[in-house]
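Minutes, project check-in
Item: structure for the 282-residue chain
Input as provided by the requester:
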Amino acid sequence: MDNKFYDLDYIIDLNTKRAEEYSSAYQRVQEQLTNIIIIYSGISIYFIPVIQDNLRQEVKNIWLYVAFGLLILVFTMSSFYTIKLILPVKAPNLDFPAKFYNNIRNIYETANPELDHDEIDSMIKTSYVSELERAVEENYAIFHRKRSFYHNALTLGLVSLIPYLICTAFHLTKDDYKIKKIEIVNLKDIINLDKKQVMARNKYVTEINVTETISAAETHLPGLEKLGDVRIILSYPRYSSENSTRFSYDKNSFVSPEERWIKMEQAIIRAFKWIFSFFRKR
């Protein structure tokens, strides 16, 4: 059986292959970045609208807030590992071969003139192996670290899809939520309006001034002469403004919109006159 691990050429060949394998593996990890980009592209479709929904509080739901918080947390962590994945690193590269068969060989020959070429060659190979070993170790460390960043970024990106889908569902159904809310509000308005109308009718009944009466004979209406002094209650119309629910039975106490607008104009004119006189005195 050949003692290959006693053979420097075999050791050099083994370390050279390992350095190339780890370097290629690192490149493959970088190429898999497209998987993360695909996930981020899907999230970006409704990401801004989801943020707007939560900032504007257009949909108030505790599950939406919880899902949005998880989405921001997990997506931020995934983005953090993605950034670390794409950041450049100091990768080891083998030096020029001339350093070994020129510089290092001359140093060995000068320092050890008593050694023959085979012994000097073994010493040069040993120096070359030491460089290969460092390159293998550092390439493996870079590959392992970048693979860990990729795994964390991809896993967290996939996990962030769960709260993202929940937030998206709330976003897509918020119009229905608003419609239902408006319908409920309108129903409340109708109920309140009915109550106001009932109260207004009750007010109409209770506000009749029964003290204002005249005798049936004073009405001068046909058919009432025979009633004599029977008291007839006088009824008055109620006055209300257009597009208003307020009303009054006293016409003089009611302020029409035109009169209110005139009073507002007069108040504004008086305010401007006061401001003008104030600055003029100064």
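Outcome recorded: The longest strand covers residues 213-215.
No further action items on this chain.
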